[in-house]
Design a protein that fits this description.
This protein is an alpha/beta fold. 52% of the residues lie in helices and 11% in strands.
């Protein structure tokens, strides 16, 4: 279970040491005083912070390999916070928390509809921000686990021969072994042999599991 960040702030002795696996909180705000105060706050509870004065500077940093989130000011020079959010739309592993001193309802609605975790108006309570960051990091960790599992499944699928992929595609579509053989012009015995290899390589014990994997990989008949 994730430790309560607010409790760690109140109890310095409970802070975890920063390591290569420590979650990272990116902060993008053009106000240096805000960046510095957020850096101190984030580091005080055992997370690692990286701060940037602009969206362009942030986009140059390497992609994090640990759970992460982005604390983002809406109104920043150049590429705005909402524009940056659009560019990062595919990054499910990096939830966004917006902060602003000039928020309005339409802006908040737009940010939340686009997937923001929270929208906070300055000045905000430190505990509220830390709680939002904690939730965002939990979401990031879950997304990274899902991505890693999907990559592993894709690796198993890539290990199949072209014929095994054909058999798998037809089997998960609901065809019986005899029907698969008819489609591919091979015997039912050969289909059974290929099917056994598919089950072994994909590390599944049932057709239902194989169907779930095919859906997760979004396999098409042409693959």
């Amino acid at each position: 279970m994730r430790a309560d960040p607010v409790m760690r702030l109140a109890n310095p002795a409970s802070r975890l040491p920063v390591t290569e696996t420590t979650p990272v909180v990116f902060v993008v705000d053009d106000d240096v005083s805000v960046r510095e105060s957020l850096e101190l706050l984030i580091n005080s509870v055992g997370w690692r912070s990286e701060t940037f004065a602009s969206a362009q500077a942030f986009l140059l940093c390497p992609r994090a390999t640990v759970p992460c989130c982005l604390v983002l000011d809406v109104r920043i020079p150049g590429l705005s916070g909402l524009d940056l959010q659009q560019q990062l739309a595919a990054r499910t592993d990096m939830p966004i928390i917006f902060i602003t001193g000039y928020g309005d309802v339409p802006m908040t609605v737009k940010a939340m509809k686009a997937g923001a975790v929270e929208f906070l108006t300055k000045p905000f309570d430190d505990g509220v921000l830390l709680t939002a960051i904690g939730h965002a990091l939990d979401r990031s960790a879950a997304a990274q686990r899902h991505d890693a599992e999907t990559r592993a499944l894709r690796g198993r699928y890539d290990s199949l021969t072209p014929r095994e992929r054909d058999v798998m595609t037809l089997v998960v579509s609901g065809l019986l072994n005899k029907q698969v053989g008819g489609e591919l012009g091979i015997s039912e015995i050969t289909v059974k042999a290929h099917r056994g290899q598919v089950m072994r390589k994909m590390k599944v014990d049932s057709l239902a599991d194989l169907v779930r994997i095919a859906r997760r990989l979004e396999l098409r008949a042409s693959e």
